[in-house]
Amino acid sequence: MAxxxxxxxxxxxxxxxxxxxxxxxxxxxxxxxxxxxxGLATAYYLAKLHGMTNIAVLExxxxxxxxxxxxxxxxxxxxxxxxxxxxxxxxLKLWEGLQEDVGYEMFFSxxxxxxxxxxxxxxxxxxxxxxxxxxxxxxxxxxxxxxxxKIAPVVNISDDIRYPVMGATYQPRAGIAKHDWxxxxxxxAAGDMGVDIIQNCEVTGMIIxxxxxxxxxxxxxDILAEKVALVGAxxxxxxxxxxxxxxxxxxxxxxxLVSELLEQVLDTVIMSGMVxxxxxxxxxxxxxxxAGTDAYNSYAQRGGFHVIEHQLSAAVELFPIxxxxxxxxxWGGIVDTTPDASPIVxxxxxxxxxLNCGWGTGGFKGTPGSGWVMAHTVATGQPHELNKGFNLNxxxxxxxxDEHGAxxxxx
Amino acid sequence: MLNIPCPWCGPRDETEFHYGQxxxxxxxxxxxxxxxxxxxxxxxYRANPKGWHAERWVHSAGCRRWFxxxxxxxxxxxxxxxxxxxxxxxxxx
Amino acid sequence: MSKVTFKFDGKKYKGKAGESLATALLRNxxxxxxDSAYRDRPRGVIGLGHEEPNALxxxxxxxxxPMIPATVVPVVEGLVARSLSGAGYLPDxxxxxxxxxxxxxxxxxxxxxxxxxxxxxxxxxxxxxxxVICDEQDRPGGHLVHLGQEVPAExxxxxxxxxxxxxxxxxxxxLYDQGYSVAIERRTDHETSKVSKQKARIRTWxxxxxxTILATGAYQRHLVFANNDLPGIMLSHSAATYVxxxxxxxxxxxxxxxxxxxxxxxxxxxxxxxxxxxxxxxCRQSASGPAVDAVRAAGIEILFGKTAIDAxxxxxxxxxxxxxxxxxxxxxxxxxxxxxxxxxxxxTPTVHLATYIGVKPKWAPELxxxxxxxxxxxxxxxxxxxxxxxxxxxxxxxFGPAQTEEQALSAYVDFQRxxxxxxxxxxxxxxxxxxxxxKRYTAIGTAHDQGKTSGTITMGxxxxxxxxxxxxxxxxxxxxxxxxxxxxxxxxxxRGQVADPVRRTPIHALHEGAKAPxxxxxxxKRPWYFPNGKEKLHDAVLRECAAVREGVGVMxxxxxxxxxxxxxxxxxxxxxxxxxxxxxxxxxxxxxxFMCGVDGMVFDDGVTTRLGENHFLMTTTTGGAAKVLDWLxxxxxxxxxxxxxxxxxxxxxxxxxxxxxxxxxxxIAKLSPTLDVSNEAxxxxxxxxxxxxxxxxxxxxxxxxxxxxxxxxxxxxxxAHIWESxxxxxxxxxxxxxxxxxxxxxxxxxxxxxxxxxxDGTQTPMDLGMDWIVSKKKDFIGKRSFTRSDxxxxxxxxxxxxxxxxxxxxxxEGAYVINAADAAKPAPVAHTGYxxxxxxxxxxxxxxxxxxxxxxxxxxxxxVAIPFGGKVIMAQVTEPLFFDKENTRRDG
Lengths: 411, 93, 892
What we know:
The structure holds 3 protein chains of 3 kinds.
Chain A: E1 27-33, H1 37-50, E2 55-58, E3 74-75, H2 82-103, E4 113-117, H3 120-135, E5 141-143, H4 145-151, E6 167-171, E7 175-176, H5 179-192, E8 196-198, E9 203-209, E10 212-218, E11 221-230, H6 236-242, E12 250-261, E13 269-272, E14 277-281, E15 286-293, H7 305-318, E16 326-337, E17 344-347, E18 353-357, H8 363-380, H9 394-397
Chain B: E1 3-6, E2 10-13, E3 18-22, H1 36-44, E4 52-58, E5 66-72, E6 78-82
Antiparallel strand pairs in B: 1-2, 3-4, 4-5, 5-6
Chain C: E1 3-8, E2 11-16, H1 21-27, E3 34-35, E4 42-43, E5 56-59, E6 65-69, E7 80-83, E8 99-111, H2 115-126, E9 131-134, H3 143-147, H4 153-156, E10 164-167, E11 170-176, E12 180-186, E13 202-214, E14 218-220, E15 233-235, H5 236-245, E16 253-258, H6 262-272, E17 276-282, H7 290-297, E18 302-304, E19 306-313, E20 320-327, E21 334-337, E22 340-344, E23 347-349, H8 352-356, E24 362-364, E25 369-371, E26 379-381, H9 405-409, E27 412-414, E28 419-420, H10 421-429, H11 435-442, H12 455-466, E29 485-486, H13 487-491, H14 508-513, E30 518-521, E31 524-527, H15 537-550, E32 553-556, E33 561-566, H16 570-577, E34 590-596, E35 602-612, E36 615-620, H17 625-638, E37 646-649, E38 654-660, H18 664-671, E39 687-692, E40 695-700, E41 709-715, H19 719-729, E42 736-737, H20 740-749, H21 789-792, E43 797-804, E44 816-819, E45 833-841, E46 846-854, E47 863-868, E48 871-878
Parallel strand pairs in C: 1-7, 8-9, 8-13, 9-10, 13-26, 15-22, 16-17, 16-22, 17-18, 32-42
Antiparallel strand pairs in C: 1-2, 3-4, 5-6, 5-7, 11-12, 12-13, 14-23, 19-20, 20-21, 24-25, 27-28, 30-31, 32-38, 33-36, 33-37, 34-35, 35-36, 38-41, 39-40, 40-41, 43-46, 43-48, 44-45, 44-47, 45-46, 47-48
C-alpha cells in the first residue's frame, strides 16, 4: 500500500444540457418503443444515417433505466457463429468511433476481455472460438496460464484451486464503457437532431389495421406512426402480445454487483463461464461483477442471494486479492433469453412493425450495432445483411444461431 | 431464494428445485401432420407473462417429482400448486 | 473500559477498548479527519454509524478492511488504521480468518433491538413464537444506547427467553421473497483477548421467517448550505452523543441548526454536558414541546424562521469557526461563533430493507419523511420506520436555504461524492427530472453509504426546484446490501477444494498412487493419462494407445452415468427416448443409443443393457448423467404418466473396469475361470454374470475402441479390488492402465464421436453420419424436427475425417477449415468447417482428425486448408473412420 492517500478518478461533468422532456405529437414517421440503449441508438442512426427525424422514442420509465442501467458494460465481439461475429464485430467497430461520432464521452476503454478455460474440454471449446475468430479476422489470442498472469497478475493460476485456469481466449480490442454515458450520449445526439424523447410514456396497446401497424396506445394517449419498432428489452414478450403475436423469449433475472471504490488492481475484463463470474474494475475503481441468470421467469428486477454468494465464492478463488473487498450494491435486470442465446432483430408478422429483442446477456455490447441494423431495418423495411440471420423465422426452420458457448462436458 | 410450495413435500428452498417453464404445454399428438410453425411453437415458444404465470418445477433434491404452480412474475408471490394432470386452479389474478 | 493504544495515520493514540474509532479520534481532538475525494475539502465525522459519509478508514491490523467508516470500527489494542479519500486498498496478503454460514427457520425475525424492536420481540415471544432479533450495536436499546440510558428491565428480559435469539453486532443486509433475509454477524473484531482461529470472524445468517418485522429506526439528515461540510459541523444527534455519552470534550461552544424538536433535545444534551450552546436556530416560525421548554429554561437563545446560510472555517485548523445564520431566503445573515455546529435536518427512516423487495415508501409530509406503508403478508414495521416518531413534533419540510450560485458550489448534498447543490441544479437544468437521473448525473447516493443521509435531501431539493413534493420525482429505493459485506464472508467455507464437490471413483486412490494427472470432467476427477516416470502426455498416450491395440489396457470407466430403469413399460419408454429401437433388445444384451432433444439435436449417448424383461441399465456420458435422469423423469411425469417406469440413479453403486485389447480375453479368462470366454459363448454386446477375482460381476462385451474388450461391473466398493487384480493378473499380458486421453484417441481412430467434443448441440444423428441409429419404424423425441427446412437441408455440416497431408502435423482441435482455393487468402475468409478431434495415432503412424464440414459427406477425397499458428496446412477429407475399417478386431 502506497504511503500517499489514494485518490479516486473523478469523471468529468455531464454537459449543461441533455434533452428536453417532450409530450407526444399526434403522429410520427416512426416510433421507437423503449428508451434504453438500443432504442436510443436506433433513433440516433435513423436520424443521422437515414434522415428520419420526425420520430419519437417512448420510454415507460426514465431514459436508460432498464437493462442499460443494470448491466456490467462488457464489450466484445469474439462470438462463435458467423452471424454473431458479424453483428457484434460491426458493433465493436462502431464503439471504436462512437465517442467522436456521437460527441459524448463514454469512457470506452479497450482494455481487453479474457475468457478463462478451466478444464480440458473447456479449453477445447474456447480454442474453437479462438480459431473461429481468427478466420473472421476478429482479434483474438490464446493465452497460457502464465500469459494470463502476465496480463492480469491478480488471477490465481495455481493448481490448488478446484478448477485451475488452463488457458484463456483474449480479445485485446474488447473492453468496457460507462453505460449511463452511452445512453445519454445517444439521447442527447438524437434529441439535438429533432427526435422527440418522451419519458413516463407506457405503451398499453398497438393500433393495427389490416395487418399493418398504425400507431400505439399509451398512457399519454394514442400516437400514430407509419412504422413502429419494438425495442423493449425485458418487456418484449408483453409488447409482442399487444401486437398479437408470440415470441420465443423467457425473461429472467440477471444480477450484478459492485464493490466500493478500490485502488486499481485489474485493468482488463475477466470472464469465466465455468465458475460463473465476470469482473472488471471500472474507471473509478469499483469492481463490477456479474453472475449467471436466475432460473425462473421474472419481471421483478431482483434475484436470489444464493446466486451472488456462489459467484463470490468463485471470485475469491480466482482472485484471492478480492477477499476483503466489500459487496456494496447488488441489483437485477431482466434479460430476454432466446432458445439459441441470440437476439431477434427484424420483421414481425405485422407489417411495418419491427422487433429487436432477445439480446440476453449480450445487450450492452450490441448497443451500437443493434441500433444501426435496426435503423436500417426500420428505414428500408428490410433487414440488413448483418441482421438477416436473426429473424423470427429461424425457430420454424431450425436455422438457429446457437451461442450457448460451452457445449457441456461429456465423455 | 424463493420458497416453493411442492404439493408433496410442502414449501422448500428454491435451490432444491429446477425450473420447467410454462405448465401444461402438451406434446402434440399429431406430430407428423402439424406444420413446422406449430411444431416450432411446441419446441421453442413458452408463455412469458408479466404477472401470474402457471409454471412447472421439479423437486430435484427432494421428491424428484414435477408439479405446477401459479407464481406472479412481478413480485414472486406464489399461488396454488397442483400436481401434473390435475385440473389447473383458477389464476389468482 | 480499559485503555488501549492504537495508530491512526501513523500516529499513536490512546483510546478506550470497545469504543468506536471515531469516538476515540474525536476524544483525541482529531476533527479534521481526512480530505474529500475530489475537492480536497477537509472533512470530519458527522454521524454515529453506517450512515457516516466522511470518515472512511483502511484498517491494516487484524483481518484488515479496505474501506470502512471509522464510526463502526471498534478500538482494540494494536489497531492500525489510516484515513481514506474515497477509495480503499486491497492488500495482497491473504486473510486467514474463518467465515461461516448458518441457516435458520424461524417464526419471527425482528430487525433492530431498539425499544420498538424489543417490544415487537416480546409480543411475539410471549405467544410462544421463535424469535430472532438482530441489532447492529453491541448492546440492545437502539436510540437509548445513544442516549446512554438503560433499557427498561421488562423489555430487556425478552432477550433471555428460551425462544428468543438475540444477535448483537448483526446487520440484516438483505431481504428477499417469502420472508428470506440475510444477516451479517461480526463476531471477533471487537474482541480484546486473543481469538481462537476456529471462531468465525463473520457469520452470514440466512433466515426464513414467517414474519419479518422492521424496527430499523431512522438516520438524521443534514442541511444543504454553503460550507456545510466543514469539520465540526455534525449531525446534532451524533454530536450530542459523542459529547454527552462518550465524554468527548473538545467542543467549547455550539450552535444548533434545526428543522424539528430533535435539535432542541440535542441542544439540552450538549448544554448539560458543559458545552456552551450559543443558539438554537429553527427554520420554523415557532415550536413547542418539552425540549423547547427546556432550551428556553436553560437560557439558550432560540432564533425562529432562521437557518444556516453559510459557515466559516478557522484559518489554520480548517474546522468550523462560525455559522452564518439568516432568513430562509438567504437574506439578513450574521455570524454566530461556534466550534460545533450541530445540524438536525429531520429524520430519514431506515426503509432500505423493504425497498429491496419492491415496497415503495410513502411520503409523510407531517413527518417530513418517507415511511413504510402498512404491513404486507409477512413484512411489517414498527417504530420510526413505520412513521411512529413518538412525539408531538412537527418538523419542517426543509432541506436548506436559498443559496447563491457561489454558495451552491460548496453546499454539499453527498459528502463522500463531493456532490453539491450546484450539481443538483445543473442536473435539473440539463433536463433531468427523475431522482434516478439526478443521481446518475451527480453521483449522489452511489458511495459506500448509499445515500443514507443524502437520499431524501436530494429528492427534496429536486422537488423544491420543480415545484413538486419529494415523492413526485421518483421513489426512494435502495439496493441491497444495507452495508458492505466482505466477499470472503459471502464465499464462506466454499473455497479451495470444497468450492465445488469433488466426485471420485472407488479406484481413485490407486490412480493417485500411480501419479496419474487428473482431468476434471464435470465434478468428477478422471485419470488423464498414466505417465511412466517423467513421461509427458504425448508420449504416454502413444505408449498407452499402442499397448491397447497390441496387448491389453485397463481403464476406469466408473464415472459413466448409470440409470436403472425398471417397469413393465420400460422398453416402450426407451423406444420413445432413444432414436433407435430398444424393445427388440434381448435380455442380457446391450445396445448403443442416441437421444435427441425435441429440436432433433443429439444431446446424449450411451450403452443400455437389458438386464431383464422389464429392467434396463442405461449408461450416459459422465457429464450428462444428471441432465439425462432429469430428462427421463420429466417425460415420465409430465407427458407419459401412463407408462409404468421408474428411474433410479445408480452411478455411484457400480464400479466399472474396462479391459481392452487383443489380450483382454486371456486376461478375463484368467480372472474369471468359470466364464466361457469364447466368441461363440460370449459375443459382442452380450453380458454375462460370473465371479471376477472372486467377486460377483456383470461382464459386458462393450468396446469404445474397436478392440476386443470386456467391462467388469461390480458393486462399487469392490472397484479397487478389481483394479488391483487386473493389474496383478494382467502383468504377464503387459497390462497398461490408460486414461481419458488415450480413450479419446482410440475411439477417434474408429470414428466414434464424443458428445460435447464432436458435437455442440447443433448436430442431428444424420449430421454425424449415423443414419443407421435413427429408427424409421417408430417415433421418438426429436424426430419431428428432422423435417424442418433447415434441418432437412442438403449440405449441412457433416462429420468427416481430415488427414493432414503432412502426417506429422497434429491440427489443433477447434481449428477452422477453409476451401483449398482460399488457402492463400488472408482473414477474413469464409470457412467451411472445423476440427473437433485431432490426434497423433500410434496405430496409424501419423496424425488424423475429425470434424464438421459443410456438405462433408459428399466431399470425401477433396483437399481443404486449415490455417493455424500463422501457417496453413492442407488436409484431405475422408470418411470419419481411420483404423480397422472392416471391424475385424472387436471379436479378438
